[in-house]
Amino acid sequence: MKTYIRQALALGLADTRADRRGILIASLCAVHCVAGPVLLSFAGLASLVGVSEKFDPLFLIGSATMGGMALVPAYRRKHGRLSCLALFGAGFLCLLLRRHIELQPISVEPIAAAVGASLIIGAHLLNLRFSRRCTCCDSRSEEAHEISNP
Predict the structure, then answer these.
(1) Are residues 33 and 109 in contact, defined by beta-carbon separation less than 8 angstroms?
(2) Which CB contacts under 8 angstroms, 24+ apart, belong to 89-93?
(3) pTM > 0.90
(4) Which of 49, 50, 74, 123 has its CA at 20 to 30 Å from residue 141's CA atom?
(5) pLDDT values of the chain reduced to their tens digit, one per residue, 150 residues
């Protein structure tokens, strides 16, 4: 089992999976935060909005975990671009602060949740793109293979 994980990390498969899971979690978070309250109120289930809000920390923890698992190793070992981390940080900050921003005429919370989730999705998509385009990793792995197998 450990050899499979090492091989997957060497091939970059684990990073790809973490990015795809991060995209899935951010997408579910966007649907939950934006469409959830609207759908519950139209269905006559407005009392469940409070129960629905208890899932917010799970989305935040899941998003932070997948972001840490995918973005940080790819930044350190593959492409070295801060743009992915900056997008993720901005999106995560939007999700954290969305309930603390209050404007009287409109509710900012769904807009901030949609923007935050979109930024996180964008960070994972950029990370996938930069990781695929990185040629330095391929040359390093070939050199390591040649050194270990003369």
Answers:
(1) yes
(2) 90/116, 90/119, 91/26, 91/115, 91/116, 91/117, 91/118, 91/119, 91/120, 91/121, 91/122, 91/123, 92/60, 92/63, 92/64, 92/67, 92/116, 92/120
(3) no
(4) 123
(5) 455 445 444 544 555 788 888 888 888 888 887 777 677 667 666 666 666 677 788 888 988 998 888 889 888 888 888 999 999 999 999 988 887 777 767 778 888 888 999 999 999 999 988 888 765 554 444 444 344 444
Contact 60/95 with Cβ under 8 angstroms?
yes
Q: Which two tokens stand for residue 8?
A: 């997957």
